[in-house]
């Protein structure tokens, strides 16, 4: 029997389960809750205190879980009583589960559709809840989750900036999906190259940059020509490391507004992750060093978004 991991935040206590739920304990999968049952709030809280981040389901229950999650996302995102924290926790769990599955099985249409649904819920969450971005960026990254946390940060912030630039809903959804998926190619690389993700780009040698830049091609190789991936989203993923000076791995100099937004936010969040600089120091450095790589209007609006969302105070 094969098991699929899912984030604990995507399962709500006191709600009927449409699938069997397992935990991984002492090198074996143990059933924790049966289909048709519920998880009591007390037991759920205890699991979270024990820092158990994942449940597992039998892969035959994939569709049941997806329908369960879709319904829960719709209900929670449209709820007038759910708090911003509750909405963020759920959408983070959905995005994390989707990205993790795409990392392990990037050619799966089911995983991609899950990512689409998670991205739309993320877009809705951050645009309808004023404190959502600050809630997302204020959380510490869990050990081993650096790429997933970065993907969530980039997706959320790039979507917010794209909205500030007046982009349409379809473009915002494409941005949210591309933000979640832009670095799945990193997980296809060997461990030594993956470690370059955690390094400041100033510390990378030319050989390092070349090796790390290959993650773009690795991502393209598994998503390209898939009928369920639209061209606009694919272009964003393909060019997320590009800048107008042509110093990206694809050496592209003509970029769309959306491509510039994703690239800029990617640079910002990577600097926040890989340096000891504060967010204020990061944006100050970007405004100086990246001036030739992005339009001044975009840089200024990005700073405004960071300030309005309270992200410079984290």
Automatic annotation (TrEMBL):
InterPro entries attached to this UniProt entry: HD/PDEase_dom, HDIG_dom
Q: Which residues form the HD/PDEase domain?
A: 143-214
Pfam families linked to this entry? HD_5
Name the NCBIfam families for this protein: HDIG (TIGR00277)
Q: What is this protein called?
A: HD/PDEase domain-containing protein
Supply the source organism for this entry.
Halobacteriovorax marinus
The taxonomy runs: Bacteria, Pseudomonadati, Bdellovibrionota, Bacteriovoracia, Bacteriovoracales
């Amino acid at each position: 029997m094969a098991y699929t991991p899912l984030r604990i935040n995507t399962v709500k206590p006191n709600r009927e389960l449409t699938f069997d739920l397992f935990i991984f304990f002492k090198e074996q999968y143990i059933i924790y809750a049966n289909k048709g049952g519920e998880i009591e709030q007390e037991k759920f809280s205890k699991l979270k205190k024990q820092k158990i981040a994942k449940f597992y389901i039998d892969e035959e229950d994939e569709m049941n879980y997806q329908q369960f999650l879709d319904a829960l996302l719709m209900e929670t995102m449209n709820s007038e009583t759910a708090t911003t924290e509750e909405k963020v926790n759920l959408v983070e769990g959905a995005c994390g589960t989707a990205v993790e599955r795409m990392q392990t099985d990037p050619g799966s249409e089911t995983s991609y559709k899950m990512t689409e649904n998670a991205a739309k819920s993320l877009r809705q969450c951050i645009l309808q809840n004023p404190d959502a971005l600050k809630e997302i960026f204020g959380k510490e990254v869990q050990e081993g989750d650096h790429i997933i946390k970065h993907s969530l940060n980039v997706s959320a912030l790039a979507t917010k900036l794209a909205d500030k630039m007046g982009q349409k809903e379809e473009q915002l959804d494409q941005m949210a999906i591309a933000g979640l998926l832009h670095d799945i190619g990193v997980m296809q690389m060997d461990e030594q190259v993956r470690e370059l993700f955690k390094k400041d780009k100033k510390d990378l040698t030319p050989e390092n940059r070349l090796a790390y830049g290959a993650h773009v091609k690795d991502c393209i190789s598994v998503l390209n020509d898939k009928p369920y991936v639209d061209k606009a989203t694919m272009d964003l993923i393909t060019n997320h490391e590009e800048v107008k000076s042509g110093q990206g791995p694809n050496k592209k100099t003509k970029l769309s507004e959306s491509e510039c937004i994703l690239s800029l936010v990617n640079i910002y969040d990577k600097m926040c992750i890989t340096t000891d600089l504060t967010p204020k120091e990061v944006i100050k450095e970007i405004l100086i060093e990246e001036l030739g790589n992005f339009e001044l209007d975009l840089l200024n609006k990005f700073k405004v978004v960071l300030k309005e969302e309270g992200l410079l105070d984290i």
